[in-house]
């Protein structure tokens, strides 16, 4: 599957990374560093598009939709079709969701990762460390 990023998408990605919304920052704080057991990339260029968050293995894209997305439903449908043609599953959330229901968003992402057959650990409780049962 070919998902080579266009020159324009590659040049837009760093700009978008530096101008992340509060909602994107909040979600990124819980996706970064393989906290869910897989690597996510933020504002990742794919083809002529830039995905908000992309996990390349398994192939999952997470998009946060602000109010502008109501007026661009056709554009979003083309984006989703492109991502799916490249083998990605696409999850869309309202942009306020990470600010108001972050745990629910993370749970839905984990459920989707499990459905994609990814070897994902159980959802850790924030602030609780994993304990190792001694031998």
From TrEMBL:
Residues of the DUF559 domain: 9-113
Coiled-coil features, chain-numbered ranges: none
Pfam families reported for this sequence: DUF559
The organism's place on the tree of life at top rank: Bacteria
Gene3D superfamilies: VSR Endonuclease (3.40.960.10)
Cited InterPro entries: DUF559, Endonuclease_DUF559_bact, Restrct_endonuc-II-like
Family annotation (PANTHER family): BLL0828 PROTEIN
Protein name, UniProt field: DUF559 domain-containing protein
